[in-house]
Amino acid sequence: MKGLAGKTVLVTGGGGAIGGAICRRFAEEGANILVADKTKATAEAVASEVKGRALVFDIADYAAANKAIGDAGIDILVNNAGWDRFQNFVDMQPEDWEALIAVNLRGPLNMHRLVLPQMLARAGDGKAAGRIINISSDAARVGSSGEAVYSACKGGIISFSKTLAREVARKGITVNVVCPGPTDTPILRGFLGEGEAGQKVYDALVRAIPMKRVGQPDDIPGIVAFLASDDAAFITGQVISVSGGLTMAG
Questions:
Q1: From CA 67, how far away is CA 70, in angstroms rounded?
Q2: Is 150 a catalytic residue?
């Protein structure tokens, strides 16, 4: 894709299933990868694979994130890190939802606040100053039982992204959102559970998806790379689902 070679890309949650796949795709395009993750072992493993650099910090900790990022000259920010706990809202306690909000909403806000000034500093010559791609979820678009607070956070990311896209469009910065549907990650496996009961839920989920399979981590990076590329220079404020047709929201 156009314009990705030599760009510096920061991927949060880069040590995870989807994050690692995104890092590998950008590496294939010739980008320089910063693999951000709070788990050192996974961050370093992916960084070694893509010949990038591991940044180990918690995105919910603004000071730690600021120290880790510094003045890295980031061209492309992919806010991918996320976490969920499947639980009906009435069974949750405030400390439960505070943990979800910290990772899924406050963390991305921290990253925008730290990286966006670097992009704005490069603006002014009419050329692309930066690309931001936020990974939300189809749970934010259509709801998902047991994910009320997670859905609220991811819905907030969609609204925030659209507003930010308006604020920075004239500066050559685009902000877009990718919403994965059910994807084969540890989070989904944890929701489905083990054994026969989990398999029944999995089979029912597959039947509901028009393409008759759940997503794989490698299904996500293509649209992320496209939105980060010069091919998508006139696309901003958009929300795109990658769900095998399960969700077709207009």
A1: 6
A2: yes
